[in-house]
Design a protein that fits this description.
about 475 residues; 3 domains; alpha+beta; five-stranded antiparallel sheet; TIGR03985 family CRISPR-associated protein
Length: about 475
Amino acid sequence: MSQFELPLTLEILRWLAGGQLAGRLERAVRLWVLLHCLYGEQQWQELPETFGYAHIRDQLFSPRHPKQDPEVNSGIPSSLPCPEASCICRRPLSFWLTDPNLLAALKSEIPDLETLLLSRPFQKTHRTLRKELDFLKDQGWIQQIQANSTSRANFRRRALGDHPQPLPSTASLPLSDHQLQKIYHILNDVAFVHPNVEILLSEIWGKHKALQQRIFVQFEYILSPEQQEQVDEYHNQLETLWANPEPGMIRFDYATRQQGIRSILTYPVCLFYARRAKYLTAFGERPSLASSELHHPAGARKIGWYNFRLDRIQSPLLSIVPWSDPMIPPELMALKQRNQLPSPEDVQTEWEAAWGSDFYLPKALLILRFPPDFARRYVDNTERHPTFKPIAYERIPALVKKEITDPKEQEYILQVLQHRPKTDRYFRAYVRVGDTNLTMRLRDWRSNGEVIAPLAYREQMRQEAEVECQFYRFPPLPLT
């Protein structure tokens, strides 16, 4: 194993980060260190042939490093207190990232690198580090074996040459222009999940000087590298939980807009992406509960659906709550006993019924009006939602009378419609009133379109437009 070669380069770090270096630099370095401890010249000589996490832990940390995760207080585990100043958990990222050329290359990709260099890759809970062994197993770096009933040593190192190899440099790939175009389209489809795909695309084009780059990609980064790694941690923890035949509930602290930090107990159902953010769809306690309700007995709590943004979770880790816990709401326990717990299929069905990620919000009829030229250029032949379709002006009154039961709202909408041109383009859909992502979509259209129904959205757009007008009224622009 003395021939193991895995240099600390930009390409290797990208590879270990799974194409998400901007958000997973800490993890990439952590994996690089572990792999050198397993296979490098300075590998752990005392590591037994078959090993488990306990063996890795004892080799990695100083003898005084805590061997167990701290007790959970209020559902939130605290950080690991280590009294040993020389322990690896105290070493910052800058301990390994010292090469000036590598730092310069990283700086071009990670604007907040200076701050990130102060982070400590191994100052993590044992639960987090234990999952790195599962990752190395899944990637083919170590081999899983059947452990006996008295031992948790269920891994062994692979033979020299029997472990993953980085992809060849793109400089050596004889890619045609057609192949590059195909690669671009594939990568572009997943760019919203992996924001640093832009960097990979630039590298592919840069290695082929004979070809002229004609495709450029620009992405927005909404999370810092630290936040992205934390979000990835929640994501990984949820996938581990769902792999359990009897996944329990989870508890975490959540930052709400109006009520500050709230402790949440909920049943996680699925993850989804919207507007560059990851959301957890769950059934249980909701942040909108009044503070007094949060302290009621489990039977008095109100439960329901809610989409949680992962970057707004404030807990270092999600706390797993088993079904035997007395705080489990009886409504959820009854659903579990009847084998009727909420499922991802339930969520998908509701998403298809109305436009909006927050499928638990009220459903309403949406009617939009656009100038013909704008509709032709930006709305026609676009996929918005299964219920989003064009509608003839003459058919709108009958639809309004059928779908809107409030007589006053119905009359008002029909009056508005009478004062709008028949030659304009009209569209209809069913939407979730109050959905944030849908509201942002309507704002994007506001200067070129009009919300005719529902009145809740129409009034919101009107009020926001009036506020915006105030911004530009004074002082007046100078005359030219």
